[in-house]
Amino acid sequence: MNKNFLKLVFATVFLFAGTAHAEIDTVKAEDFVKNVTSQGIEDIINANVSQAEKDARFAKLFNDALDLDFIGQFVLGRNWKVATPEQRKEFIQVYRQLNVSTWSKRFDEFKGKKFIFKGTSPSNSKGQVFVNSVVPMEQGEPAKVVWRVREKGGNYKIVDIIIENVSLAITARNEYTAFIKNNPGGVDALIANLKSKI
């Protein structure tokens, strides 16, 4: 094989590697997640306000911080392609409501706790990066919480949360795929099932 050709190949690889690294500002991504966790803990969980007010604050934070359209499409998986525009819209709406309700309660586990950030890790997905953090617990090892952050048009959004190596997005995708596969009602049945959980 021609040596000049090999040089060209390696030069191209390094060029693309450098470009991929520059796709997302890791410092801004980490600062974004720091701000989200700070608001979630200090302004919501630890705030001396009613539960209704906490839910309202969390709904705003959740909707602002997470790209729920992107996540919703991912968790619906191959069924997104066969879903009608009306089903897609309704699924995203219900999925959003369910997650706000679920995470409003889930964040209570972090009451009085503090996230300690451990830098970032590269992602194979374009325009995305993993932000690493741990939460010291009263007993045992600190809980590992990794945030997958996506940048688009200068805006940063969380597209997955991985707690102790368990991806919430992948878990939901597997669950929803299995539900639709085993239910003749398909996407409509899934939407109805999610509504019943809100």
Explain what this protein looks like in three dimensions.
The chain has one domain (24-197): Nuclear Transport Factor 2, Chain: A. The protein has helices at residues 3-21, 26-45, 51-65, 68-76, 79-82, 85-106, 168-181, 186-197; strands at 116-122, 128-135, 143-152, 155-163, 166-167. Mean pLDDT is 85; it is low at 1-22. It has 8 helices and 5 strands. A 5-stranded antiparallel beta sheet has the order 1-2-3-4-5. The chain has 198 residues and is of the alpha+beta class.
Termini separation: 62 Å
CATH architecture, by name, is Roll
Strand numbers in spatial order across the main sheet: 1-2-3-4-5
* H-E order: HHHHHHEEEEEHH
Ordered list of secondary-structure elements with their pairings:
Blueprint: H1 3-21, H2 26-45, H3 51-65, H4 68-76, H5 79-82, H6 85-106, E1 116-122, E2 128-135, E3 143-152, E4 155-163, E5 166-167, H7 168-181, H8 186-197
Antiparallel strand pairs: 1-2, 2-3, 3-4, 4-5
Helix pairs in contact: 2-3, 3-6, 4-6, 4-7, 6-8, 7-8
